[in-house]
Amino acid sequence: MTNDTQAPATTDGFHLVIEALKLNGIDTVYGLPGIPITDLSRKMQAEGMRFIAFRHEQNAGNAAAAAGFLTQKPGICLTVSAPGFLNGLTALTNATTNCFPMILISGSSEREIVDLQQGDYEEMDQLAIAKPLCKAAFRVLHAEDIGVGIARAIRAAVSGRPGGVYLDFPAKLFGQVMDAAAGQRSLIKVVDAAPRQIPAPDAVQRALDVLKGAKRPLILLGKGAAYAQADDAIRTFVESSGIPYLPMSMAKGLLPDTHAQSAAATRSYVLAEADVVVLVGARLNWLLSHGKGKTWGGANAANRKFIQIDISPTEADSNVPIAAPLVGDIGSCVAALVAGMGPNWARPPAEWTGAIAERKDKNLSKMAETLAKDPSPMSFHSALRVIRDVVKANPEAIVVNEGANTLDFARSIVDMYLPRKRLDVGTWGIMGIGMGFSVAAAVTTGKQVIAIEGDSAFGFSGMEVETICRYKLPVCVIVFNNNGVYKGTDVNPRGGDMAPTQFVKAARYDKLMEAFGGVGVNATTSAELDRALKEAVASGRPTLINAVIDESAGTESGRITSLNPQTAAKK
Questions:
Q1: What is d(CA 49, CA 350) in angstroms, rounded to the nearest whole number?
Q2: Which of 248, 277, 285 shows the shortest CA–CA distance to 264?
Q3: How confident is the model at residue 113 (pLDDT cuts 50, 70, 90)?
C-alpha cells in the first residue's frame, strides 16, 4: 500500500521573520552577515528584500537610524551576536537619544547556555545589556511569537517619542519549524503604529494667550519638526503668525534658509532677546544651553516664557519652567494653533522684526565678504562657498555633515531649501555617522548625497566607501583635509611621535575611493573643488574629493570649546 496523504506545509523562523517585516512594509535591511544570521541575510535577498551589507555594524546601525528619520518607519539593522551586537548598540543608543525609529535585531547564544555561563561562542546576555540603552527590548524564543515580537518592536519604535528598540533572536529560533498556515496566522500587520495625539483645547488656548502677550516672539524649530513631516502646517504657522523662526541644524529647509522670517543669521541676538519662545519639536538640551545662562541673557531673561510642543509630557520643565506645554503630535498641535490664531492675528511689532532684519543683513553682508575670498590653500569658508552654490543649484540633494569645524561652518554657510535634506551628528554630537547616513539617504531616496566630512570624522567610517561603490550609490564624499583633528599644526613638545591631534601630512583620501572603482579627486583650489563636485553630481557616480584645507585653519573643538576642561580652565 502507498500513502498518498501529503504532509502539511511547514515554515521556519527564517521565513517568519522575513514575512513579518514585509507584511509591515519593511523592504530594506542594513547589517553585516555572520554567525548566526548569515542565512537570514541570504534568504531576505532571495525573498525580494534589499540587504545592504556594511563593513562595520555601527555604520549599518547609523544607516538604519537615518532611514527611520527619513521615512518614519523603523530602520532595521541586523547584526551577529556579542561583538557585532555591541558595535550596533552605539548606533541604537544614538538613535534613541535623537528620537529616530530604529530596530536592532541581533542573533544571540541560546538562553540555557548564557544563563549557566557555559562558555558558548560569543556568549553574552545581550537583552540585559540593551535594556537601559534603548526605548524597549524584547527576546523571542519561539517561532510562533516572531510576529508578536516584530509588531511590538515596530510600535515601540515609532509611537510617542520615537526611538531605538532591540530584538534578541537566539540562533535556534531561525531553524524552528511550524505549520505554515499557523505561522501565517501568527503574523501581525501593525495598524496605526503612531496614532495622532490631539492637544487639549485648554492647552491650545493657554499657548495662544501666552503668545498674544509677546512683544519679541520667536519660533524655534527642532529636528522633531522635520521628522513629523507636517511641513505645510509648520510653514502656515510661521507665515501666518509673522513670527521670526530659528531652525536647529536638522530642521534647516523646513522653510528655505533664505526665507524672510529666518533669524538664523542672528541666532545669538534672538535667543538673548526673545520674550516668548515657541519650541516646535526642539528640546532645551546642551545645544540650546539648557534654556538659560549667557546664551539666553538679555533684557527679557527674567520674564521669558516658553511654549513647548512635544509628544512627551515629561519633556516640559526639564530645564526651565514651561509656561504653556502643548502635548501632542506636532502636526495636530501646529494646526490647532493656526486655527486658534484666526485671520486677524496681530503680527509681531515692527520694532522686533526690524531689529532682526537689520542685524541679519549686517551679518549676511559680513559673511558674504568672507566667502568671496579665495585663499590658497583653501579655507573652510572658500571650500564651503563652492558646496553652498552647488546645493543651491541642486536643492533635492541631501547633505550629510560631521566634524568639528567642518560641521560648525557648514551649518551656517550651506543653505537648505527643502525639508529633511540635512543629516548631521544630532544631539550627541557623535562622530562616525557620515558614511552610514549617506548610504541610507541614497538608498531611501535615490537622490544625490553630498557628505561634508572633517578628516577626523571621516576616519570613523571611511571604509564604507567600499559599500558605496559596491552598491553604486550617488554619494559624493568631500573630505576637508587639514592634516589633523581641529587643525594639523599641533606639536609634540618632547619630539618623537606626532601630536595626538595630527594625521599623516598630505594624505590622499581620494585614493581610497579609487581603490574600489569609484572616482577620486584631489582638489587643492576652489576651482578644482567646484569642477569635481559638479561632475560628481552630474554623473551620480561614487566620488571622493580630497579637499586640501589650510592646516592652520580651525579651532579647538569647533564652537564647543567651552566643553573642553583644559580650555575652559584657562578662561
A1: 56
A2: 248
A3: confident
| Assessment of whether the complete model's pTM goes beyond 0.85 | yes
Position 174, amino acid: F
Between the alpha carbon of residue 374 and those of residues 357, 525, 526, the distances in Å are: 28, 8, 7
CA distances from 376 to 490, 503, 547 (A): 21, 20, 12
DSSP string, 466-514: HHHHHTT--EEEEEEE-SBSS-S----TT-SSPPTTB--TT--THHHHH
What is the per-residue pLDDT for 571? 47
Q: What residue type is 37 in one-letter code? A: I
The CATH class that applies to domain 373-570 reads alpha beta
Q: Do domains 10-186 and 201-358 have the same CATH topology?
A: yes
Report how far residue 2's alpha carbon sits from residue 83's, in angstroms, rounded to the nearest whole number: 53
* Cα–Cα distance measured from residue 222 to residue 279, given in angstroms and rounded to the nearest whole number: 8
Residue type, position 540, single letter: G
* Architecture category of domain 10-186 in CATH: 3-Layer(aba) Sandwich (3.40)
* C-alpha–C-alpha distance, residues 171 and 161, integer Å: 31
Residues sharing a CB contact under 8 Å with residue 351, sequence separation 6 or more, in sequence order = none
Q: Of 95, 416, 101, nearest to 247 (Cα)?
A: 416
| CATH code, 201-358 | 3.40.50.1220
SS3 115: helix
Residue 475 neighbours by CB under 8 Å, 6+ apart: 438, 439, 442, 448, 449, 451, 468, 542, 543
Per-domain boundaries in the chain = 10-186, 201-358, 373-570
- Identify which of 287, 216, 286, 218 has the alpha carbon closest to the alpha carbon of residue 248: 287
Write out the three cell numbers for 362.
Answer: 549686517
pLDDT at 195: 96
Separation of alpha carbons 419 and 395, rounded Å: 10
Q: Give the tens place of pLDDT for each residue, 526-543.
A: 999 999 999 999 999 999
Residue 313 sits at φ, ψ, to 5 deg, of -65, -20
